[in-house]
Amino acid sequence: MKQDFMQAMIKRRSIYQLGDNVALSKEQIATVISECVKHTPSAFNMPTTNIIVAFGEKHQQIWQNVKAVLKEHLAKKEEVFAAAQAKIDKFASGIGTILYYEDQEVVNELKETYAMYAENFSVWSMQAGGMVQFAVWSALADNGIGANLQHYNPLIDEKMKEMFNVPDTWKLVAQMPFGSIEQQPGEKYFEPLDNRIKVY
User: What are the transmembrane regions (predicted)?
Assistant: First the structure.
């Protein structure tokens, strides 16, 4: 059994200590991400998942805006904000951020076109988006690039919309900062698979 794909999945971990010492160029990283988006499957082959990849100043601005929003929401919780700020600074230390969106216009069009399955399209959209996130995360890991997945939405939705002129129909679902791996994660605990998988 070929192990390349399995090894890529195993390499994929949540890396929080990020840096800017990455061998791949921005163009190469963008190509890796684009190929993942292109080849990840979705129900009815629906193109609901859209992403924004930010490098350099735009990457920094994302996390500056996240901090500004959190500071406002945690105005009376200084210790909580201080901890959040320290965490966000680690994300900003990377070289880029991917913003993941799901296009609600496409979802709604499919609901109308295939009314019999209407209630499923929102779920299928999120499934497709999750697969894209996993594919990109694993592909980055396979190229020696660390990443983690964050969910500051919907608090930051308006800020991101202003920054990148995001269409009204795009719904922000996740943020993925990435960069060099400055600290390896600890050993991961796995629940016994006998409790999760039944083979007959």
Answer: none
Pairwise CA distance, residues 124 & 127, whole Å: 5
What average pLDDT does this structure show over 7-15?
94
pTM of the model: 0.95
The alpha carbon of residue 128 and the mean position of all alpha carbons in its chain are separated, in whole angstroms, by 13
SS3 per-residue string spanning the chain: CCCHHHHHHHHCCECCCEECCCCCCHHHHHHHHHHHHHHCCCHHHCCCEEEEEEEHHHHHHHHHHHHHHHHHHCCCCHHHHHHHHHHHHHHHCCCEEEEEEEEHHHHHHHHHHCHHHHHHHHHHHHHHHHHHHHHHHHHHHHCCCEECCECCCCCCHHHHHHHHCCCCCEEEEEEEEEEEECCCCCCCCCCCHHHCCCCC
Q: Is the dihedral of CA 52, 87, 92, 66 positive or negative?
A: positive
Domain boundaries, the chain: 17-179
pLDDT at 2 over 70: no
Q: Would the CA dihedral through 56, 59, 64, 67 be positive or negative?
A: negative
